[in-house]
Write a structure and sequence with these properties.
Length: 183
Amino acid sequence: MPPRSRCSPSFRRPGRGAPGVESPASRKGTPNSVPYRTEAETALPVCRELGISFVAYSPLGRSVLTGSVRTPDDIPPEDRRRDHPRFQGENLSRNLELLRHVEAIARDKRCTTGQLVLAWLLAQGPDIVPIPGTKHASRLEENVGAVDVALDPDDVRRIAEAVPAGAAAGTRYPEAMMRALYL
Ligand SMILES: NC(=O)c1ccc[n+]([C@@H]2O[C@H](COP(=O)([O-])OP(=O)(O)OC[C@H]3O[C@@H](n4cnc5c(N)ncnc54)[C@H](OP(=O)(O)O)[C@@H]3O)[C@@H](O)[C@H]2O)c1
């Protein structure tokens, strides 16, 4: 039997996280971004039930949500994103179509698409902690600006509806890694 995925809610065990009892786990890390959120949506209610905060990694969809990659050639030669199916061929075209919906809402909110999708996570509760990655100070500043983008529950719903869970094209990781992680 494969080991339990660290990204599935199967980490729940009877008796864990009862009110007033400190849970052995205080944080759970799962990729969570507007287009790649299927596992997160399954895990989040369990985390909340057990009092575990949720670290949302790759919250920018590994940059697909920033609009900085329009063709595979926009990715530097040694960058591992080149191996990710979401950036390849027809998958990238479909993901760029999804991005267009996000861009329309970002224009309304007068922010960048990266800020919008980070704000979307922040607006869902203080127990969700997005950790965007960048090597550039200017992008760090841009991403931090997400805290100033105010989204109400209708905005959160509108963004989720614009990019339904599971709509992204291309698996979360390259095929070999999916197998290695039993995904
Ligand atoms: N625990 C785990 O298993 C796990 C797995 C994956 C990731 N993580 C962690 O999660 C964090 C973030 O994940 P991630 O880096 O995979 O994905 P991400 O935050 O979704 O995206 C990062 C990518 O977006 C680009 N980017 C960032 N801000 C941007 C902006 N404002 N405009 C345009 N492009 C922008 C970055 O390029 P530049 O660097 O060139 O700006 C980088 O290629 C990292 O700290 C990583 O270590 C953890």
